[in-house]
Amino acid sequence: MNQSPIALITGGNRGIGRSTAMKLAEQGSDILLTYRNNRAEADAVVAAIEALGRRAVALQLDVGASGGFPAFASQVRDALATHWQRDRFDHLVNNAGAGLHENFETTTEAQFDELMNVHLKGVFFLTQKLLPLLADGGRIVNVSSGLARFSFPGSSAYAVMKGGVEVLTRYLAKELGPRGIAVNTVAPGAIATDFRGGAIRDNPEAMKMIASMTPLGRVGLPDDIGGVIASLLSPANGWISGQRIEASGGMLV
What we know:
Elements (H helix, E strand, L loop, with lengths): L5 E4 L5 H12 L3 E6 L3 H13 L4 E5 L8 H16 L4 E6 L14 H22 L3 E10 L12 H21 L5 E7 L15 H9 L9 H11 L11 E4 L6
Parallel strand pairs: 1-2, 1-4, 2-3, 4-5, 5-6, 6-7
Helix pairs in contact: 1-7, 4-5
């Protein structure tokens, strides 16, 4: 009897992470999701996944605090043993993040370091710590941003981190290939979520501007990205590795 895949999704309590968790559960995966502060949100996602007949567990994690990664890996190991009687999970989605809108001239070292800790150092070392628990033949998806391709003032520090993640993806694809692990980047365009306090979702003018430069004529939604990530993790797409897949509706193509 085939076991259901288990996916670990950072920041799975809201936005793109939540959509990814639900889409994966719909296609038959069980879910380990992380949240930073909002336990109630995470519990609601767990309940929604369980309503689909899948198993789910929520664990607290600050992806910007790498000192906590060894303890988190132990929690993952315990959760796998307790809830699945297994010692490996199958898919890792590095999604959790925080935004910043600040011009290059006024970006502080503290702001830069916070973004680096979350988006680059966090992804690098969390993946490293979880590798012993990731099954051979597994998959990794790193979430980047369309801002690593196109440029808008105020996003330089954030985009630099995402550019680093895209380079890391290619190196991981090369180094983890001998274990049969496929590694890819999904780069969302502008998405209407609560990211940066709902800066896009709650700004009609921003929504109109983005729609005008997007061939498909609208701002993206979380399910547009969750569906792409779930597709990449489906059995049919195991031969894709080392790629950057932008899901932006063709924005600024």
